[in-house]
TrEMBL record:
TM regions (residue ranges): 36-58, 103-124, 131-157, 187-214, 235-257, 295-317
GO terms (BP aspect): transmembrane transport
Organism of origin: Agromyces rhizosphaerae
Entry similarity comment: Belongs to the binding-protein-dependent transport system permease family.
Domain ABC transmembrane type-1: 99-316
Chain coiled-coil ranges: none
Membrane topology field: Multi-pass membrane protein
Pfam families hit by this protein: BPD_transp_1 (PF00528)
GO CC, one annotated term: plasma membrane
Keywords, sorted A to Z: Cell membrane, Membrane, Transmembrane, Transmembrane helix, Transport
Listed name of the protein: Sugar ABC transporter permease
Length: 325
């Protein structure tokens, strides 16, 4: 009777079957090249980022320490002035007025955008599929419209002679708004600008928050409802903790975008607004740099704004990391 001999299991520490020449075969392990592969794949994108963003930013920083005007644009050598541009900007009362105006305006826009965006996202969560699709298409159309085009359309609505709003207030509500200009007074100017900016920013917040709402477990909400938690408690005690990281990122992005807003303010000023009383940081930098030709001072203002935005972003990121821990 023939017996079948089974191969013996390799002993502990054996490196595997031997090669034909009798030497043991090396065990395959991830080498140094495998560990460096992810970093190598990042090199092309890092090179593009450095070329597109890093190099212009470095040039801006260098320019901020120089006396760089129209003569330097046409070939004259720039003169190094050290911190002179920064001291001049920080000692200028107009800069502080523009900064305070921009911070207050951005804060109002951010709060209104977040509140309305979250409400729209909650509404989309409750709607049926057909209505949700209709709302999504409307939000996408508003989001896809270029800021300049949107500002011109809203400018027609608020036009002093042919605007729909003045006509409706005068004819339908009996108010005397014939020929009323919404852009001559700073308060009403920023009211119009806020509507344009918030209207264009709501879709991004709504879509982002709605994506986060789809990750909130339904059983958790049902358990909270069974425990007697009302809609407000369920939102603040259940939904908000799940969306905290998303809301922090959205808030940071909205602060950055609203502090450096340019197109809407500049276009409304061209439609009849008073530039001196309605300048924000983006428009102020443009007017200092291209309006007066002082690119060194404009660069210094830009660097100060960048540092200010980085400080705000770092604060929110640190708070987010503390809460995660």
């Amino acid at each position: 009777m023939s017996t079948v001999t089974r191969p013996e299991a390799p002993a502990a520490g054996d490196t595997g079957p031997a090669r034909p020449d009798g030497s043991p075969r090396a065990k395959r392990t991830g080498g140094r090249g495998a560990r460096l592969t992810p970093y190598a794949l990042l090199v092309p994108s890092l090179v593009i980022l450095v070329a597109v963003i890093g190099w212009p930013l470095l040039q801006l920083v260098i320019m901020s320490f120089q006396e760089f005007g129209r003569a330097q644009v046409f070939g004259a050598p720039p003169e190094f002035v050290g911190l002179g541009n920064y001291l001049g900007v920080l000692g200028d009362p107009e800069f502080w007025q523009v900064l305070g105006r921009s911070v207050l305006f951005a804060a109002a826009c951010v709060v209104i955008t977040l509140v309305l965006g979250v409400l729209v996202a909650l509404l989309m969560r409750k709607l049926a599929a057909g209505w949700r699709l209709l709302v999504s298409i409307g939000l996408l159309l508003a989001w896809a419209m270029p800021p300049l085009s949107a500002t011109i359309v809203w400018g027609w609505i608020f036009d002093s002679q042919y605007g729909v709003l003045n006509y409706a207030l005068s004819e339908w509500f009996g108010l005397d708004f014939r020929g009323h200009s919404w852009l001559l007074e700073p308060l009403s100017f920023f009211f119009v600008a806020g509507i344009v900016i918030v209207w264009g920013a709501i879709p991004f917040v709504a879509f982002t928050v709605f994506a986060g709402l789809t990750q909130v477990p339904e059983e958790v909400l049902e358990a909270a409802q069974l425990d007697g938690a009302g809609p407000f408690k369920r939102f603040f005690l259940v939904i908000v903790p799940y969306l905290r990281s998303i809301l922090i990122v959205v808030t940071i992005l909205q602060i950055i975008w609203d502090l450096r807003v340019f197109t809407q303010i500049y276009a409304l000023q061209a439609l009849g607004g008073l530039a001196e009383q309605t300048n924000t940081l983006g428009v102020y930098i443009y007017r200092v740099s291209l309006g007066t030709g002082d690119f060194g001072v404009g660069g210094a203002i830009s660097v100060i704004v960048v540092l200010f935005l980085v400080a705000i972003s770092l604060y929110y990121v640190r708070q987010s990391l503390k809460e995660d821990r």
